[in-house]
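Ex. 9. Protein: MFS transporter.
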Amino acid sequence: MSWLRASTLRLRLELIARTIMERRCDRCTRSFKPIRSLLVNTSKRPQGNVGRARLGISLQFLTNGLVLASLLPRLPELKERFGLSDAEYGLAVVSFPAGAILAAALAGVLVRRLGRLPILIGGTALLAAALFLAGVAPHPLIFVAAYAVAGATDAVVDVAQNLQGLRVQAVRGTTIINSLHALWSAGAVTGGALAALAAGLGVPLSVQLGVTGVLVVLVAWIGGVWAVRGVEVEVDPTPTEPAPGGNHAPSSTDPTAAKGPPRAVRPSWRTWLLLGALVVIGSMGSASEDVVNNWSTLIGVGVAGLGAAAGVVYVVGFGAQFVGRLLGDPLSDRFGRLNVAMVGAALVAIGAAVALVVGGGVGVLLGFALMGYGSATLVPAALAAANEVPGLKPGTGLSLVSWLMRLGFLVTSPLLGAVAQGEGLRNALWVPVIGGMVALAAVTALRVRDGVRVG
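Predicted structure tokens for MFS transporter:
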């Protein structure tokens, strides 16, 4: 029996030793847990593939610019088909921004209710279909209606794309909004070049728009899925409204902490002034783009005398804008959004003046290159700053500025058409000259208000 007692005692000693070791290991684990949290970020992180989300939203911006540009260089064909004067043409193409303004007011609500993925994919498909109908329209009224639907759809897709782009930017922690708009410009250059090439080769507009539309929808579908699902955690790109329970939540021991549900903060008059300045900047940037969109080919024919090669003016304008937006992110990080936008507004006015005064092929191409480069950062800067305005719901500032800045599109073409009808197409270039000066004045007057980083 002695061997049995010895065996029992040995088992008890082993059990005690094992218990002691487990407790020591548990204390050791708890002791090193704070150190581990310093070495490895165990806080809530976005799940999924941020790199894929970056690629996906890039494809979305690229395809949006491409599908819009697939029709623009061939608008003079429609002007000739319908027998429109300059003034009538200006009123016809204004249907696009008119539709955009009507729809953009509800863009933020639609994005929140329907979700970004359905809008990114379905909106692109509807946009391609509307542009196709506008291109094959047998009557100017059908063109106006289809072009208005295209503008309305683009306005909603534009808000969804910018919100998703700012979300990916917030996750990455580095500025990407200008480079995203650079890809939009790259798409516009590509689409414009393909449209000009198709026109030169005699490819029917219906064939060109049909093939382009199908390819764009397929790529946009892939990009939309990657952009949304690559960032699964909701990240509010507005830093002024921390999520409930986050690091900025008031401490329960703070005597100044608000008790009960937080009250809605009404925007101050400074907030509205800031939004107004951003609307002016965005509107003038939109107006500069509208000159390149709808009038570059006509100016290439009537002012530069380029004939069938007039589409190159469009390509040069948006090619320069692509370069400006590609450089916009590092320049904005280095010198500030405000300073970069000031230089851009000045270049818009100077470029339009060069095209006006010098004229000819060299003057028009150089002038439109300066206009494109100068306008590159105006719209992205206005949208990014609008999304940071405090006292507003997430996405409200961006949606509001995106809506109102389309007034630049709404006014520019009819004004250019009226001036061209009365004073000649060359003198119509005074419109972007004045627009650039107005944008420069707005950017100069803009200051950092309510903690919003503008410059």
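Check your answer against this statement. The CA atoms of residues 19 and 211 lie 73 Å apart.
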